[in-house]
Every structure is written in C-alpha cells, then in structure tokens.
Fold these 2 entries.
Entry 1:
Amino acid sequence: TQLLEQSPQFLSIQEGENLTVYCNSSSVFSSLQWYRQEPGEGPVLLVTVVTGGEVKKLKRLTFQFGDARKDSSLHITAAQPGDTGLYLCAGALVESGAGSYQLTFGKGTKLSVIP
Amino acid sequence: DADVTQTPRNRITKTGKRIMLECSQTKGHDRMYWYRQDPGLGLRLIYYSFDVKDINKGEISDGYSVSRQAQAKFSLSLESAIPNQTALYFCATSEGLAGSEQYFGPGTRLTVT
C-alpha cells in the first residue's frame, strides 16, 4: 500500500492551461514537501509546508497543505514548457524517534506542457 | 561544483558481480540517504545514516549494504547483483531537523544483465 498517493500519474496539457496535482494519504504528516525532477537529474525541492491549511506561492505555483495535514495540492497557473517534469510529494510522518527523519515519497506526477 | 556527487553515472554489470556506488557531499550534512527509483514505483529508501557510526535500514535494504567512510562519503554496495536491481539510484543528504529538505545527487543508472 502506497502511503502517499499522487494523482494524476500522467498529465499532458497545452501551454497556458492551468492544472492541479494531488497528494493524498490516510496518515498525518508533520511536514510535506514538493520536489521537481527533470530527466537525468535528481529531485530538487520546490517547497515545504508544515502547518495545516498552509498555502505557499512560488511564482505561478501554489501549494496547499490540508487542514488535517494528510493531503496536499499543487496548482500551476498558465503552465509553460519549462514546467515539464516529474513532480514528487514527500512527507515526514508524525512519529517519534528516527522515523520522523525519513521522507516517504509518492510515485509522482509526470507533467508534459506542450508549446 | 555540485554539492552532492555520485560515481559512476552509468554502469552496466552482469548478474552475480559485486558493484559499489559512491556518493560524496560538500554540504557538511550529517544525514545521508540512498534511494532507488523505478518507473511507476517512485523513490524508495534503501539505507540511511545519521552520522558515521549510525547506519539504518530503509524500506528495501535486502541485497544491499552500505558504508559511511566519513561524514562526506556514503557508499552503496550490491554484493551479488541481480537483474531486478536495475534502477536509477540516488544519494541524498539533509540537515539534522526532522523533515528537512533533502539534496539529491544526479543519480547512477545501473543495469544488471
């Protein structure tokens, strides 16, 4: 069972369109991160959200952490070809001890923005 | 220069061979991690280390071993490679706070034939 479910798995849209990708779980996370990975490279952090209901904006990207800290969404406004990549969410579980230092990753959403 | 480097970047090996993947970091972080990435399965944690004397198994440690030679170096070994270990392998580092950002290396593409 995947702890973090990301949807959709694949998304292909035209330049200029808006989109939302989701990251859902039945577990509570102390924090949740979004990474973007481009082909041939490692994931790079976009944002970390830590408070239930928190909303963070990064230019055309808007990230939201669910009130119960079990889910998150990433909304991209007016997508551009440069947004193409694999978007991964990763959460730090609310656990005591060493487990809280681990990140659990979703399988990712592969986004293609067509010019 | 990259903060997290991995060698080799690509490797093709045969079943049964021993292979070592190396990771070095200049970020000064104590925590280091090894992941593998497979299409459709995402990133899965193999091993992690909180410092030179602390090594912990992750989700999928069977068939792998690690060595933390120094704060800056963390190696992953496959003692006897098998085809289902064909994957993209990433090393990552982080600071000491729970849920800290992880900084990833560029990855090693390993193919076991």
Note: Chain A touches chain B at residues 2, 30-31, 33, 40-45, 48, 50, 88, 90-92, 98, 100-103, 105-108 (CB under 8 Å).
Entry 2:
Amino acid sequence: ETGVTQSPTHLIKTRGQQVTLRCSSQSGHNTVSWYQQALGQGPQFIFQYYREEENGRGNFPPRFSGLQFPNYSSELNVNALELDDSALYLCASSVWGVGTGELFFGEGSRLTVL
Amino acid sequence: GDSVTQMEGPVTLSEEAFLTINCTYTATGYPSLFWYVQYPGEGLQLLLKATKADDKGSNKGFEATYRKETTSFHLEKGSVQVSDSAVYFCALGGFRGAQKLVFGQGTRLTINP
C-alpha cells in the first residue's frame, strides 16, 4: 500500500511569487485535505477536495486554491506569497464518508518565503 | 467554534517516567478525538483515537479516555522511552460527516536516558 507522498519537500520563494505543491493520495483514498503548519503550531485546515471539487474550506484567503485530479492526486496553489505563508504544508488523504475522521498525512512540503 | 487546548510544553522526562499530556476541547455535537504524533523529520501519524464518550483509545503503551463530562482526552503512558520523543497533537473531528480535523498547538516531549 502506497502512502501519501508530497513534492517538493523543501522550497524557497520570494514575496509576491506563486507556488504549487503536489500530493498523491494513499492507494484507495478519494479525498484530499491540505493543512498549513506554522513553526511551533498545530496544523490549520486549508481545504478539502472530493470528486474534484472543493468541499469545505478553512479561514484562508482566495489566493490559496487547489485542484484534485481524476486519479485523486491534488495540488495546492498559493499566489502573491507573503512572508507569513512560510510553513510546513501537509496533505492528508482519506475515504469520503467512511470511518471516524481519521486522516493519513504525508511528510509535508516546507515552504520558506523570503 | 470548535477548538482544542493542549498542555503547554516542552515536556522533559527521564526514561521510565509516567507521562500525562492534558487535552481539553470545545465542540458542538459529538466529535471523534485523536492523538497524532510527529517524530523528527516525519509527517503526522495517528497514535490513537476514540469515537464516543467513555471510549478508551490505546496504542504502543499510550492511552487516552474520551471524557465528555470534562471535555477532555488526556494522553498517558506508564513508562516512557527515549524513542517516544516527538511532538504530540490532540485533535477533534469526524463529526457532522466532515473529515476536517481541528488540532491543538502540540506538545513537544523529550525523554532523556
């Protein structure tokens, strides 16, 4: 069984640039969620995708957007990067409507904005 | 809104000591409760969970009981090991059909030999 994989693992951008992060869900999972984890903080929910549509969004501005593809993989896009966007971005996968809310996480993409 | 409050860290213990990490929550409805662990350089891993009041989740010697009357889900282990050094996150979710998790701020645990 293949777990959740994310790329890239690390990247550095400058303020105002745009970034795309990628995630492959665990085999058999059809739902992908994205979380932002600032240094020393717990993960914060950004949004969730199911059937290629956004299904639930946290308190993040529209410059955070995403996609889900037919193979259930996903992208997180952030436009007009700000210094506060520096964080570990975690992708999690699950099966829609099954179970008790347990999520399976990747190792994350660490974004540094200079 | 829904929230989770964890005992502030960092926590430093000697090997074989007893561990308690406190977690309380605020939620409307009846969430599931989770403890996730993040080892250095790794992603979040589910440690244990409980889905209803009075349930006890357990794994790798860790235990936590879902206490609805005190809105708590404290993590305990009778004898910690150096390998337990990690950051521990309490979280709630799995309610109202959603799969969103609300996390606490995390507690960094260091075990000294």
Note: The mean pLDDT of chain A is 92.
